[in-house]
Amino acid sequence: MGRAGVEPATCRLLGGAQRFREQHPTTQVLHDIAHKTAIVLKHELLADPRWIAFVKHCGQTQPRVKQTELGHLAPPTQKVKGRYLNLGPLIGWGARMLRLIDTPAAERPAGLDLTRLEEKFGWIRDFREALVDWNDLQAGKDHMLEFLRVAGYHAAAGETLRRQLETVARTPAGERAAARLVEFVSEQSSGVLPGQSLPASSEVLESLIGKGKRLQGQHSRGGFTKLILGMAASVVRISEEKICEALNAVRHRDLLAWIDDHLGKSLTAQRRQALPVLPGTKAGSTGTANN
């Protein structure tokens, strides 16, 4: 473990951020709200023995019903990575399964073997109260992410969230989680200037990187090409006036000069230069001759 119980990878990331700030003092280092909510939910759930038992039941039930007539009712598989970022499907399944079990036999979907249903899923009744608590935790998390994905960290973010979550968090577990998250958001927003809003989640950056990969497709071959500029263009409101302004401001030779200065030759261009096509052969051939 690193400093004060922090994981080594996190220590390296924080150290890198600190060194970057030494060179760029106006940079603000902010933490991702999605990962913070996952940490808070993990803390609450792992301290709840009902959750441990619930997850165990789900894990045991899934293989027992997977290849049966009840297979469509099996609990969803939990993710190995980012498990506490994706609890919604599992908690939602528990609430829906409890509703199905509580539904009178005459009103249940046709074709369900009531004896088998009770045998495989009757245990869900033991988690009636727990599911109320967990749904409350999930609702608070969803509300916070929805708000901050749009509004970002800003001067009034903590107080606004506190008021909003008062109507969302209705259980002791939900109130505890809400209080911790509001405190975190207030801390992250404390250095944001009035009228300014900064991203609270890396999701927007991850989405932009994904778009850049799609734009480059097979052209990059492990490196960057001029298509990387499409990432910048994709976050601009494109209009005819903008296009005309850009074409008048940037000449083709300016683009080529920028590529040379910042990207250099692509891996494909370097390969072609180092391994030119042999005389008498076509590009892509092995260059060997048949006897």
Q: What order do the helices and strands come in, and which of them pair?
A:
Blueprint: H1 8-23, H2 33-46, H3 49-65, H4 88-102, H5 114-121, H6 128-151, H7 157-165, H8 172-189, H9 203-216, H10 229-233, H11 240-249, H12 252-262, H13 267-274
What can you see in these coordinates?
This protein is mainly alpha-helical. It folds into two domains: 31-189, no CATH class; 203-274, no CATH class. It has 13 helices and no strands. It has helices spanning 8-23, 33-46, 49-65, 88-102, 114-121, 128-151, 157-165, 172-189, 203-216, 229-233, 240-249, 252-262, 267-274. α2 (33-46) runs antiparallel to α8 (172-189) and α6 (128-151) runs parallel beside α8. The longest helix is centred in the middle third of the chain and has 24 residues, at 128-151. The protein is extended and about 75 Å long. The model is unreliable at 1-5 (pLDDT under 50).
Task: Sum this structure up briefly.
By secondary structure, the protein is mainly α. The protein contains 13 helices and no strands. Residues 1-5 have low confidence and may be disordered.
The share of residues in extended strands comes to: under 5%
Largest sheet: none
Percentage of helical residues? Answer: 55-70%
Number of domains: 2
Pattern of helices and strands: HHHHHHHHHHHHH
Number of strands: 0
Provide the low-confidence segments as ranges.
1-5
General shape: extended
The total of helices stands at 13
Structural class call reads: mainly alpha
Radius of gyration of CA atoms, rounded to a whole number: 27 Å
* Oligomer designation: single chain
Terminal Cα span: 64 Å
**What is the mean pLDDT?**
85
